[in-house]
Design brief:
The chain is an alpha/beta fold. The protein contains 12 helices and 10 strands. It is about 40% helix and about 15% strand.
């Protein structure tokens, strides 16, 4: 059972955050401005006042900026990400500086609380860390006071671990790697805990496979599940049914209960979906459900692993 009004520390940043962070990827790229702004207002009204966005999430930053201007007195905190231009491979330091300027303009913020280097797997580690690369640019922007804190957000957990070992990053976003179907992020979570780095765990539902209690099994990590994963989901549904809990509540609970995870990023497009997320987070779950779910975990060969994109 989680109280969404609780505030948790974000590593050693001095920032705090609620256990649920509202993700804007879906509404930013959905093409419906009214729906997006309505969802953001509903999130604020429901008490979800920490928002995750990105320069590369379509129109998300513009939608967020509009609602931020309306809700200045509600203490909304925004975490964004630096990206190349759409369909561009330019992820140089110059591009990161431009990305940050674009985010500041769209969000209506002079200083950005957090900017993550987004999906650095798009370039090599050496290019990312080079003198003219994006990491040096982010560090310089932090030193100049334009950004308060920098993080790294991506897929391959082995690569994320290399970045945090540089000592430059204060926060990490990992996705699809710590769920009821995958524990590939275990070593990353341990490394972040040792270094007092705040962790945002995104996509606890795997993109759809871990939300439904019945019916066809949805995709996981942007692709169709294989037969081993499908069998695991069906077993998870049986366990959930036996304990009288929705699958979504167990998927969310796995992330929320882990002390190595500062906050869990979840997206929704309607007020009713937001209410469902909060209800799932607030449910009390039997302690003996977690060992059963651990036994339902697919073998490592059917998890994403350290290098999978």
């Amino acid at each position: 059972m989680t109280d969404i009004a609780e505030r948790r520390t974000l590593g050693a940043t001095g920032l705090d955050c609620g256990p649920l962070v509202f993700g804007t990827s879906g509404i930013g790229q959905g093409g419906d401005a009214h729906m997006a702004r309505t969802a953001l207002r509903a999130a604020a009204d429901a008490g979800l006042r920490d928002w995750d966005t990105s320069n590369g999430y379509g129109l998300a930053e513009r939608y967020v900026g509009t609602v931020l201007a309306e809700r200045r007195n509600q203490g909304i905190q925004v975490f964004t990400k630096a990206d190349p231009l759409a369909a561009s491979t330019d992820f140089t330091g110059d591009r990161v500086r431009a990305s940050v300027d674009e985010s500041r303009e769209r969000l209506g913020l002079d200083v950005l609380p957090v900017v993550h280097l987004h999906d650095p797997e798009r370039i090599t580690f050496d290019d990312a860390m080079g003198r003219s690369g994006p990491v040096r640019a982010l560090v310089a922007l932090r030193d100049a006071g334009v950004i308060k804190h920098i993080g790294v957000a991506g897929g391959p957990v082995g690569l994320l671990q290399r970045f945090i070992e540089t000592g430059e990053f204060e926060l990490v976003v990992t996705h699809n790697r710590y769920t009821l179907l995958d524990r590939s992020a275990e070593a990353l979570l341990d490394a972040c805990a040792e270094r007092h780095i705040g962790v945002f765990n995104a996509a606890p539902f795997g993109g759809g496979a871990l939300t439904a209690d019945e019916g066809p099994v949805g995709s996981y990590h942007y692709r169709e599940v294989n037969e081993v994963q499908r069998s695991a989901v069906l077993r998870i549904r049986d366990i959930a049914r036996a304990h009288g809990a929705p699958v979504g509540a167990l998927a969310l609970g796995l992330s929320l209960r882990d002390p190595r995870i500062s906050a869990t990023i979840v997206g929704a497009s309607t007020a009713s979906h937001i209410a469902r997320l909060i209800e799932w987070a607030s449910l009390s779950v039997d302690d003996d459900v977690w060992p059963e779910l651990e036994r339902a975990l697919p073998p490592r060969a059917h998890q994403l692993g350290a290098d999978e994109r």
